[in-house]
Every structure is written in C-alpha cells, then in structure tokens.
Amino acid sequence: MASTSEIKNGLCMNYNNDVYKVVEFLHVKPGKGPAFVRTKLKSLTNGRVVDNTFPAGHKIDIVRVERRIFQYLYKDDTGYHFMNNETYEQISIEEKLIDNSKFLKESAQVEILYDVEKDTALTIELPQYEIFEITQTDPGAKGNTATNASKPATIETGAEIKVPIFINEGDKVRIETATGNYMERVK
Questions:
Q1: How many domains does the chain have?
Q2: pLDDT per residue as tens digits for the range 103-135
Q3: Nearest to 158 by CA among 100, 113, 117
Q4: How many CB atoms are closer than 10 A to CB 69?
Q5: At residue 161, what are phi and psi to the nearest 5 degrees?
C-alpha cells in the first residue's frame, strides 16, 4: 500500500476492482480545509476515463507494471499480433487494449504494459510521434493561406486526419498518435 503522495502520471493502481492508470493529477492545498489530490484515471480494461479526488494521505493499491518493447506485425480476425524483440515470442492482443489503433503501422515499435504479478498485458502505448505517408487528399485551394486552413487527408494506415492545404499526396507527415494532430511535414 502506498499513499497519495506517490501519485504521478502513468502510475497504475487498483481502484473500484479495476486497474486504472493516472492520466492527470493535481495536488491541492486549499487555504482552508485539508489537502487533496484531484486525478483523472483511465481504466486499462475498458478505456473509460473517470475523475476522482483522493484525500491527502489516502492509501492506494499500486499495481507493479513492466514495460516491454514489442514490434507490431499484422492484424487478423483474432486481434493484433506483436513480437517480443528479445525472445521473438509472438502474442495476440485485442483491439480494445490499444488506444488509437488506426495509427499503428506495420513494424512499429510499441511498449506493452504488463501486470508483473499476473503476467498479463494491460495496455499498449504507441510512440508519441510517428511518420506517415499521405495516400489520398484533395488539392488545396490556392491563395487560402491567410487562415489556418486545413483539409482532410488519408494516411497509409487508412486513418483520416486534418492537414494544412499545402500537403499533397505522397508527402510524409509527423502525427501525434495520442490525438491524431498533424505536427509537421517531413522531408
């Protein structure tokens, strides 16, 4: 058992008979009354996000997790298949454990969080930024540069994103995988 003073982003804990990961937290010490910790927790089993406030000193049950590097191989009817880079062991994971699976491209290196005690996969974390090729987009309207104009584009994985109007088919762009936001064009 640990206390709320150990809460930080990425910490995994048992809460309401489920495993949650801390997405955001804020230690609050009001001028009047006791201190508390305001958190945003994400369930690693169903993806639901909940807000919760813990009183200062509250005991929490931390889940020991281990990050393992895997390479994404392919997707089929049974799920997404990954290979451990050290042991060459292959595993299959359900789509619900992957955030933004539409940004998962073949041979990408991902981190899989494992519950050490149960040796089960909890969630998959994609790289923060990934480079994709634009496979389809409409030509932009010339002269429309006064505002931050954007247009829809399809990337190599089939996901649709918004890009600036100067991006053309065949261009490579850097995308933030958590949000799907365009970051920059890559030469």
A1: 3
A2: 988 888 999 888 888 888 888 888 889 999 999
A3: 100
A4: 12
A5: -130, 170
For residue 164, the domain's CATH number is 2.40.50.140
Instruction: Give residue 108's identity as a one-letter amino acid code.
Output: A
pLDDT of residue 95: 81
Which long-range contacts does 24-31 make (Cβ < 8 Å, 24+ apart)? 27/56
- What distance in Å separates the CA atoms of residue 115 and residue 66, rounded to the nearest whole number? 7
79-110 exposure pattern, b = at least 16 Cβ within 10 A, e = fewer: ebbbeeeeeeeeeebeeebbeebebbbeebeb
Question: Last residue of some domain: 62, 83, 108?
Answer: 62
Encoding tokens for residue 26? 């804020």
Assign 141 a pLDDT band (cuts: 50, 70, 90). Answer: low
Q: What is the pLDDT of residues 5-24, one digit of tens each?
A: 889 888 899 998 888 999 99
- As a whole number of angstroms, the distance between CA 106 and CA 118 comes to 28
Q: Give residue 155's domain range.
A: 129-186
Domain of residue 11, CATH code: 2.30.30.30
Q: What is the pTM of this model?
A: 0.74
